[in-house]
Each structure stands twice: as C-alpha cells, then as structure tokens.
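Reading a protein record of the kind used here takes only a little practice. The record below shows the convention in full.

——
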Amino acid sequence: MEEFQAWEDLSNIPADPPAMRNLCVNCGRPMAVCWCSALPPQRLNPRSNVILLQHPAEEKRCLRTAPMLQLGLAENKCLIYKGKKFPQPKHENLENILNQPNSLLLYPSASAVDIQHFKCANDYYNIILIDSTWPQAKAIYASSPLLHKLKQVKLVTNNTSSYIIRTQPTEGCLSTLETAAEALSQLENNSVYSEQLIQPLHKLCQYQLDNGAVTHQSKEFLIKNKTYPKLIGKRLSKLLKSTNKCTLE
C-alpha cells in the first residue's frame, strides 16, 4: 500500500518546471535584487583598460563585483579572462596585452610601487587585476611566469571597503570593483571612477542588510580584538604580518 501511495505521489508531480523569477537582462540577477539602477548614468570611458584574470570559482559567487565593473565601464574597457594560470591558448590576445610596456599588474608584492608614480605619464594603461581570493591569487601568480615580468603596482589609500557584508582578510582590503575604481581614479586623476563605479555595490549591500545580513569586520580586526571565532592558521598569521594593504577581493 505504501509503495502504491509513493508512485501515486510521484505521478502528481507537475511535468513543467517551476516558474523562475524574472531576471534582469543586463546583470542577470533577479529583478528584486537588481543593482543596475545604481550604475553610472552613462558607461564611463577611461583612457585605460581593466583586465581581470578571474579564478573559475569567482563566477559561482552570487555577490561578486566584477559584473558591476564590466557594466559600469564602456564596452571592451573591462576584459575578463578565466583560468588558474595565464595566459593560455584560449585567452585571445591576452599574451599580447601582458607583453605591452604600458601594462601594470596590481599586486601587493614586496617590489610593487605606488600606482601614482605612473599618474599621467602615459596616454593609457592596461591595469591587470587578479580576481580571486588571496590564496587563489597567490597560486595564480605562482603558476603564471609572464605575470612576474610585469611592472607591479599597489594602491596607497586610506579607503575602507564598502563591501561590508563580506569578511575581508585584513584592514584596508578592497573588492575587485573598488580596487579597479580607485586605480582608475588615481591614474587618470579623476574621482568619477571611485565615486560612480561603486554605487551598485552600495545598493547590493543595503539590500542584503535590509534582508537579514549583518556587517562584517575584517579577520585582522576580529583577531586583534580577540573575537575571531576560529583559530588562526599559519598562512593567515603570515599574511597578517606581511601584508598591510590588500587590494584583492
């Protein structure tokens, strides 16, 4: 009898898939959580280009910031290449971009110089960012020898991240969106990028907070105040000692 009831229950399951929420044709997010209204009134068109080297795991994050950057800038001003090492044969024209003398890798290494040293010194730059978590970024850098040959730069800023619904590794860490926006503003001496590009992030965070999310302090802050709920691993401890500024998401 129970077996018969089980088959009867299965037969009553509708064949059609459940109705999906309406999605924004621009950002691809459900209309209820779309942040497109906060994008710049007109897509910004800097002289420089932003090149994101994106770890495959980033594409699965529902709260990632790279789409905000791509939609906030003019077409082809933000190019995204996906992989765990760069360049690969599938990365069209990337090797050529990396070999250009005006390409700058935004990576907080010991040899990185203040990005403002390049301010207005060239017509345009290719700003290369690794879009990933910090451990993933280190792995990408280690497996991509061509990246080691690029001029390496860092951001010197007192800005704190507006990405308050996500725990950052250290104080001063910025999301991919915020890093690119600040880099463009400093290189092109125009605050419009740091002001307008991050507005969708503000909208996203406010929606999350209005629906139960809470603000997050950095791991560095929590550890200093002895409120971090996990034991510190050797990798994180080393990172906190050696990295004062982190520009990766």
